[in-house]
Amino acid sequence: MENTHEKCLKLAKRIYDLDTNVYQLSGSSLGRTFNGDKDAHISTLATLIYTHPQGHLLRSEIALIGNMARTIHNKSERSRMMTEYNAILKEIEQIPASFGSVDIVDEQLAALNISNLHRQASPDDHLIICIGRTHGSAGTDIGFALADALKINYYDVEIFNQVLERLEAEKDSVADRDNFATKLHELHEALPDTHAKRRISDFNRYHGLPKKDAVFFNQSDLIRDMAKKEDFIVMGRCADVILTNNHIPHISIFITAPFQQRVRRMMEVNHLEFKEACKLLKKLDRQHERYYNFYTGKKWGDAVNYDLCINSACYGIKESVELIERMIDKYPTKK
Question: With CB atoms counted within 10 Å of each terminal CB, which end of the chain scores lower, N or C?
Fold first, then answer.
């Protein structure tokens, strides 16, 4: 009988081959997801599948391939690639739960909940779902599973970073002949200190803005452009406020769970002691809160800022996905 290690290795090879085929068929300007040493990528993928089959790193890599596969113009080839994509996801779901797939559901709370939600929008709008979440609430798992169920693209911070880095590389390949840039280059060459040189380079690249601000604005532009072209789910990134400020229809959701439940899940998923899990959760939540509050002027997690707030401990991952699907069942969007 084939063991789990062998299954993970075979799945890793299939993911790598899928990336190759999708790139060849789509001709994406963003390039392949996996560049460089084939064996090294396959080994890393196999380890991720074995240790954290539902982890965000693996999920982001696979989702990026799926996003590109949906852009393939040839219908039959697109169908063939998406069939393989979905088959890989199904097989990853079968990897034993003891290797990292832990639900958030609290069975006692789950028994008390029913829902019947929906929302209407114009048929001219794309279906865009913005999901904010506290760490450990399974929000990213719910977002990824929802994107798969709806057959739409999924974007999280890892995917955005990859896309922006590749777009930035394209920009860097075009020489900037502006006099200001020339002066900065001269100053850069005259500086002996490596750290100072790096700061000057960033100042040049980001037009005088701090790097984190420039990344946020570039990311905002990308989200707005995407909203004109496709249906998608976006995790965090202040996307709800960015779209609201640009009068772009969307559904905003916030997912959380009781702190103790989130701690338990973090302990099981990441193999942490209780104190370590508590400390990590508080740190990550503070980071999310500061980022959202700073760039939006709103309060992260405040129910009045969202269309729907979900206590994932009441439903678990699968039921949370079904709850959101019921909510958007009558959402008439472009097909």
Answer: N
- DSSP code string of 73-118: SSHHHHHHHHHHHHHHHHHHHTS-GGGT------HHHHTT------
Is residue 32 domain-shared with residue 181, that is, in the same domain? Answer: no
Question: Concatenated DSSP letters for 207-266?
Answer: TTS-HHHHHHHHHHHHHHHHHTT--EEEESTTHHHHHHHTT---EEEEEE--HHHHHHHH
> What is the 8-class DSSP label of residue 305?
G
The domain that contains 276 carries what CATH number?
3.40.50.300
| pLDDT tens per residue across span 77-95 | 999 999 999 999 989 888 7
Domain range holding 226?
102-173+211-335
pTM (two decimals)? 0.73
Give the residue from 210, 233, 260 where a domain finishes: 210
| Rounded Cα distance, 129 and 230, in Å | 11
pLDDT tens sequence across 92-138: 888 775 444 567 777 766 665 544 334 445 667 899 999 999 999 99
Last residue of a domain, one of 74, 101, 128: 101
Same domain assignment for residues 38 and 163: no
